[in-house]
Specification:
- By secondary structure, this protein is an alpha/beta fold.
- The protein has a single domain, classed as Rossmann fold, CATH 3.40.50.
- Helices cover 38% and strands 18% of the residues.
- It is built from 13 helices and 15 strands.
- The strands form 4 sheets. Strands 3-2-1-4-5-6-9-14-13 form a 9-stranded mixed β-sheet, sandwiched between helices. A two-stranded parallel sheet has the order 7-11. A two-stranded antiparallel ribbon has the order 8-10.
- β5, α7 and β6 form a beta-alpha-beta unit.
- The chain starts with 8 loop residues before the first strand and ends in a 7-residue tail after the last helix.
Length: 351
């Protein structure tokens, strides 16, 4: 994949988010070829400002940093995926689009379901429609999805499940563009995830709150998520969804590893509305359409017959659920020590 992005003009919607920022850093590193430009498209000017400062290694800046931005490899564009004309403008002179814009907080989506639909579904439709109607010559569009889109029980998962289908069907509306997706689980230490919550509770002396003692979750880092996305760009067929073969853990075990024997209580608060005990990355029905993809990933083939490819031997028998690939305490401790020692702090991982 050394020249995958060489000379490409790349757009990252929602690029100021946790995943977006790591994705942008990896793109600009040149590990898979140096893009001609990377444009972050989002509606939050404050996040864009601080991201601009971070990437230019400045602590503060006057207006010239914005005025000079069009001459730099990393660029920023204010706009909203909900606005069709804004989306059309953002797609000009772009080769590859990474779609990370989303409303992703489960409770927020439950209380504002239509807002979730507007961003997660209408945003995807605006992108596909723009490429189709204006025949914009985009090479590839990568939709960033979530395990909550599999067998969804909450608004966030439902809207992301429909979003996946909007992108997949885009291959029929704009056959000159390859629409693919990447679906992955809980990201370690991302904004709003469980590890920062646990660490904050531990730093305050507890208690650590767990909704149910049976809860399990898939675990991967932001770099693992980006690896999955890059594998999809390199190898996915039109309409395929790439899914990492990632491990999982019980949340009680995760809490125990982070507490590391200190006198801190664990309190069970009860499962929250819209929350699953176990997450699934692939359902039993999807398993029949799943093959081994590149980069150690699963490749879920599309349901639409126009995009279907034969599956001689499925890569899975039954559902890929977070309760079927559990790490024990020692495996979890080693996993965290390898994947994110700086974020957690070695004091939490001493054997």
């Amino acid at each position: 994949m050394t020249s995958l992005f060489e000379g490409k003009r790349i757009l990252v919607t929602g690029g100021t988010g946790s995943l977006g920022q790591v994705l942008v850093k990896r793109l600009l590193s040149g590990e898979n070829g140096l893009p001609e430009s990377v444009t972050v498209f989002s509606r939050d000017e404050a996040k864009q400002h601080y991201m601009r400062l971070d990437f230019t290694q400045r602590s503060s800046a006057t207006d010239e940093i914005i005025f000079e931005n069009s001459q730099q490899r990393l660029q920023f564009k204010l706009g909203d995926v909900r606005d069709f004309h804004s989306m059309v403008d953002a797609l000009r002179d772009i080769d590859i689009v990474f779609c990370a814009a989303a409303l992703k907080q489960v409770p927020s989506c439950e209380y504002a379901p239509w807002e979730a639909c507007r961003t997660n579904i209408e945003g995807a439709e605006n992108l596909v429609r723009a490429i189709s109607e204006f025949r914009i010559p985009i090479d590839s569009v990568v939709g960033i999805s979530t395990d909550k889109a599999c067998k969804p029980v909450n608004v966030m998962g439902m809207t992301k499940a429909i979003q996946e289908r909007v992108y997949i069907q885009g291959n029929l509306r704009a056959p000159h563009t390859r629409f693919i997706a990447a679906r992955y689980g809980n990201v370690l230490a991302s904004r709003g995830s469980v590890i920062p919550l646990f660490l904050d509770q531990i730093a305050k002396g507890g208690p650590v709150t767990i909704t149910t003692t049976e809860m399990t979750r898939f675990l991967l880092t932001l770099d693992d998520a980006v690896d999955t996305i890059f594998s999809a760009v390199a190898s996915a067929l039109p309409g395929e969804t790439y899914i990492p073969h990632c491990p999982s853990a019980k949340m009680t075990d995760l809490a125990d590893v982070l507490i590391e024997g200190r006198d801190i209580d664990i309190v069970v608060t009860g499962i929250r509305p819209g929350e699953k005990v176990h997450e699934s990355l692939l359902s039993a029905e999807e398993a029949a359409r799943t093959v081994v993809g590149a980069g150690g990933c699963f490749a879920l083939r599309p349901m639409l017959p126009e995009l279907a490819h034969p599956v001689d031997e499925p890569a899975l028998v039954g559902e890929f659920s977070s309760d079927t690939s559990l790490m024990d305490i020692q495996e979890l401790k080693a996993f965290l020590g390898e994947k994110m020692p700086a974020a957690i702090g070695q004091r939490y991982l001493e054997t």
